[in-house]
Amino acid sequence: MRAQPTSSFLLSASARRPSTTNHSKLIVVFASRHVSTWNSSSPPFGYSHGYTSDVDSKEPMRGPIRNSVSPKLTPRALKQHLDRFVVGQTRSKRILSTAVYHHYKRIQQLRQRQEELEDLDRVAQQLNEDAANANIDYVSKPPPPRSSGIGGIEMKSIRDDPPLTIEKSNILCLGPTGVGKTLMIRTLARVLEVPFSMSDCTPFTQAGYVGEDADVCVHRLLAASNWDVKKAEQGIVCLDEFDKLSKPRVNHGSKDIAGEGVQQALLKIIEGTTLTINAKPDRKHPAGLPGGGFSAAGGGGSAKGETFQVDTSNILFIFTGAFSGMEKVIMERVNKGSIGFNAPIGNLEPNTEFFASHTPYFNPQRPETPTPAIATTTTSARVGSARAATPSPSITTSSGSALASKILKPKFNALELTEPADLVAYGLIPEIVGRIPIIAAVEPLTVELLTQVLTEPANSLIAQYTQLFSLSGVELRFTTPALREIAKTAEAMGTGARGLRTVLERLLGDAMFEAPGSSVRHVLVTEKVAKREMMPGYFARGQKHLFNAEWQNEEEEWAKTGGEPFEAEKLRAVGF
Which GO terms describe its biological process (predicted)? Predict the structure, then answer.
């Protein structure tokens, strides 16, 4: 190595400098000992793995949860924040919170690494300036490495020791519409104050055809980040209706420009590439006039706009879609060879230990499968007796029917068994499936969950309509049976939580027209009103006691029944 002679030369030269402190001498000597290593593209100053790998997780949080009781950013804290806005979907919340948390930490590490690189560049520049001022023939390029030749051909030494890089994990969130997929993703992006954009995959086509190109999703992300390229390169892109890009199962002879072609175009964007985005100027302010060009970018005075180079390597992509019919694909795979040839899928019982044993994650209901080498009759008998001794929850009815002896089984969501092979069978190409390692399945909302959606979230529909009526000086109130009936009606629509607003608009349409500006000061929605058997109850200013009495009477009647009128719905919710 030639680092030592160079070091001694710089030491003697720095000692002859007339106005140099001891501190500056030490800096020059320390850096000069590593100049050969630095210039040979290896980690500077003796780093063995590149750069700092620890990120302080106790730093003050940003976003809506910075004033929470536990301000430390963790996946648990993110899930608790999601619980305020989304009802149910416990497992999907855990998966999304963990994935977005790790994306946030990756961005922190990359940002910290970039700052360290900039610091090292500043130190290198300062050392070169100091050496030039001292009239030192500073070594700008290291001497060529010694190599052994074979047959007169020199063999160059190859050294490739890049720093450890944590790669991103894209997410697929699939499930029925109206259950909170988009809301969960938007909430997490708002919490972390990360640039976020959502694009519908339905109008996507291959480049050159009528429609939107696949890279328009990154264009929207750049606009959402106020045309800040660095922020956009660390943002989150959500591609909704991703299942609409699946290949058709029957080839009609025409070119598939909106299915497989778009998937191929998304490959490089998801994996990581540099996109050239030509942003158009604001049409409201023509170029050359005051306020013209880009209102967000602060530039772009030309008619052609401005060009941006965006690297998508660190952009997190989240794909969402209903994937209608995926349950049938999963059932055919899971039950192949176990239910007989051509057995109808509709005759299968979904709540069985057989299906629980196929979950791709730990499941407490997974049946025990002892290893054949150590399984004995005594062990099997002991396990069987233990199961028999374990009390099982049961349904108790006032009539004492035979249903009271039935065991409550956990509800089964077939989408939780989704494997990459199922996505390929559905119509996605294997290349894009391999770039989406995380799969989060959401479940349909039951009547109980829809009732919670009406009242529990921070921005619940009941709170919205109550506030809407209060703007006109009218108090709106619902009884518990009415809320339950509204949830049942919305469930029958099959549109998830979105159906709740439709039901409320139908029930309150006349009241929203008649109450403002009239003598009505209180509006009551009872169970009969929810069943559309009568109009909402109107009460004037002096009839508040009647308003409270009628509401109290129905609540007491509901408490006496104990939910017995809805036993059939409870049984259907658990699979009976």
Answer: proteolysis involved in protein catabolic process
